[in-house]
Sequence to fold (390 residues):
Amino acid sequence: MRVLLTDRFCDRAKSTSAQTDYFDENVSGLALRVSAKGVKAWTLHFTGPTGKRARITLGRYPSTSLAHARTLAIEAKSAIAGGRDPRGAGDEMTVNDLAARYVEIHAAGLRSADEVKRRIYRNIVPLIGNVKLSELHRRDATRVIDGKRNAPTEAERSFQDLRAMLRWAVSRGDLDHNPIEGMRKPQGSKPRERVLSDDEIRTLWNSLPQALARSPEYQRVIKLCLVTGQRVGEVVGMTQSELDLKHKLWKLPGARTKNGHPHTVPLSPLAIELIGKGDGEQIFPNDTRDPSLAVSRTIYRAQDRFGIPHWTVHDLRRTALTGMAKLGVAPVVLGHVANHRTTTKAGMTLSVYVQHAYEKEKREALELWADRLQGIIAGGAEVVQLKRKR
Fold:
């Protein structure tokens, strides 16, 4: 669709399909691409030196204004007229160009692709997207960090994203060297240490039907996080094909775990009861792009209805593992329950010579914790430590 682009039009533009290109009447080839979700990006369509049609991303709207997009398009067209490909060497590329390639080619294969893309286009591109790679300086990385000074964890991760992008550019030959290599990453926030007390566990468990009355599925997710000690993303994404209820096992493929390694979780009777039978492949059907984030946001919005001090869903995993430790479960078994490779494969000796998967011990630990949990919820049950065989 060809229109005379104006700031007002760009601000109100919407897509009539999966994505719509609005081509500028003033600068040929320049288009505002609008996705069905409302994401707007500037693209330039051109014929390269080889005679093939190509497209380059110039930036996102509104961080890259209409006037600036036209300037970038004209500069790129000048390069084309001079026989140069605007997608070529690093001295012609901007951080914006690199971000588009990195997200499309490299980050798309990461398990955290959506989160990486979000951080890049929220924290990096708006601040330094128009900086040419050849002119990129450490102070630009500092601008990214300072932009998130009040969110230390976000600042740390955004710096790591920028560093990863630049290292990738060097590995491909788009950049001769990484200008921020050797910079110290910003200090992230202190890791949470919150563990729910027995009284808090009981209060939380019993408050869920009222606190999350409109989210019965999330009630079960929260309870399963506490019963199994697994991550919320793994629990909320549980499928029928991962379950072997005959042998009381939940088999997570590597593609669904944080460290990329397959993980087997023995299921206690309480866990099986919470899972239920289900009608479809998804145990917890949802239509959100990031179910784990949806659970976390639901918990955040309902904090004043649980009757206990502020908590997060990851605190439940920490609470479960701490509870098992109090019951006498050995650290190496806890590592296998949590699928922590740093514990289960800590060194050459363990990783090469010890191939025992601790399946029996994991089942004993999880069933012992489930029994203890039911006692807590009922308002009684003293801690009984796991007896060690001599």
About this structure: The beta strands are 2-3, 19-24, 30-35, 40-47, 53-60, 243-244, 249-252, 263-266. The chain is about 45% helix and 10% strand. The two ends are 78 Å apart (CA to CA). Residues 347-354 have pLDDT under 50 and may be disordered.
